[in-house]
Amino acid sequence: MNLDLAPIAHALDQAARNARALPQFSRHRPFNLEQAYQIQRASMAHRYADGERMIGLKLGFTSRAKMQQMGVDSLIWGWLTDAMLEEDGGQLNLDRYIHPRAEPELCFLTRRAIDRPLTQLEAVDYLEAVAPAIEIIDSRYEAFKFSLEDVVADNCSSAGLVVGPWSRDFSTLANAGVLMRLDGALVEAGSTAAILGHPLRSLVHASQLLARADISLPAGSLIMAGAATAAVALTPGAQLSVEINGYGECAFTCSGQAQGERS
Q1: What do you get for the CA distance between the two ends of the chain, in Å?
Q2: Model-level pTM?
């Protein structure tokens, strides 16, 4: 890694640890997408050195419209660690976050190591189970604004996840209804078809990205397949739940106060 990129990785690590927002680096220190992934890896290395354990990966830009908007032809990806796991049905402490938002997703559990590019026909054979899930995204940048390179460097805004009950039924993944409720009121409704037309395509893309990076994802890893609807902002005391038809529900209640964009 180039020495001039190391301070960016350190700054992003500290921003996540201390829940303090940073200005966009791309405004005063431009870097390309390859360098952004170098920064991401170096920033995550700080976490691993402090005892966090990698448990899987998250995918972003799983909407075709979002890809076109950002001018890319592939997904982006970041890493999940055990410290990001939040309890289903439990309390989500907003003190740990800057400006957290929640997205409804599917979470896959792998049963085989993903060590080569997969086809969609092969993908299901690499899965142990699937579950309804909620990803907590929390950009470490001020005002939740960033370039493509900024967000990749920031581990694609990955901050937390809640995983619901596991199922071995993959037969209705293609178009399962998704409902997200905030304090009991429906705030987002959609379908798993919003995830690249079929969530298994996320797994295929993940395998291709891993192969390009010469990385093997171990069996027993989690893969967050991408958002099925828009995200909602989280506020103190809010109760949030996600239901995916045929796969059940997961939920949490917010406690504490998000740090906001403190200087």
Answers
A1: 29
A2: 0.93
Determine the number of helices (DSSP H) and then strands (DSSP E) in the chain: 6, 13
Cβ atoms 192, 174 nearer than 8 A? yes
Q: What pLDDT is stored for residue 3 in this prediction?
A: 54
Give the H/E segment covering residue 6. helix 6-18
CATH code of 126's domain: 3.90.850.10
Radius of gyration of the chain from its Cα atoms, rounded to whole angstroms: 17
Element (H, E) at 35: helix 33-49
Euclidean distance between CA atoms 201 and 64, whole angstroms: 12
Q: How far apart are CA 178 and CA 132, in angstroms?
A: 9
Listed residue (48, 58, 5) closest to 221, CA to CA:
58
> Rounded to an integer, what distance in angstroms lies between the CA atom of residue 43 and that of residue 24?
16
Task: Average the pLDDT over 8-17 and give the result.
Answer: 94
Helix 33-49 vs helix 6-18: crossing angle, to nearest 10: 50
Cα torsion angle, 183, 79, 142, 86, sign: positive
92 in a domain, yes or no?
yes
User: Domain range holding 75?
Assistant: 6-255
Of 33, 34, 46, the closest CA to residue 6 belongs to 46
Whether 263 is covered by a domain: the verdict is: no
DSSP assignment of 121-175 equals HHHGGGEEEEEEEEEEE--SBGGG---HHHHHHTGGGEEEEEE---B---TTGGG
Note the pLDDT tens digit of each residue in 38-72: 999 999 999 999 999 999 999 998 876 556 555 66
Q: Evaluate whether 98 touches 259 at the Cβ level (below 8 Å).
A: yes
| Residue 179 maps to a domain | yes
Task: State how many domains the chain has.
Answer: 1
